[in-house]
Amino acid sequence: MLGLIKGLGVTLKNMTKPKVTYRYPDEPLEMPDRFRGIQHFDPEKCIVCNQCVRICPTDCISLTGKKHPEKKGKVIDTYDINFEICILCDLCTEVCPTEAIVMTNNYELAVYGRDELFKDLEWLNQNNTKIRKENSTNLIKKPGGKK
Hints:
- By secondary structure, this protein is α+β, with helices and mostly antiparallel strands.
- Helix content is 23%, strand content 16%.
- It has five helices and five strands, in the order αβαββαββαα.
- The radius of gyration is 22 Å and the shape is elongated.
């Protein structure tokens, strides 16, 4: 009988506390500034140096490029990430010399099939809705139409 009374006491005490749950699909959670979410990729900045591919611990990034027909250097051809095995470690963004890859606060990757976790160049370029504050100054357009 004493155990029942103690249990009811704990229940009544916790009923008066504020709720700690979120209405997730309706109200998305605000993540901290240093949260490592899905990457954003800007193909215009990429110089096809392959540093992101070499440093990736899970080998989930594939990058191909071809020689530029007029200028010196390379032009990006494909850039793909397999989010099925990506651990969002932020190493690819740290080694990128041109900051073509930046992390966002976007974390919603729920899909119905594994094949949908292979993201290509176009999808990663459009993933710029929640850029981290420390990287947002690089994506703001300056007067004259240049970034």
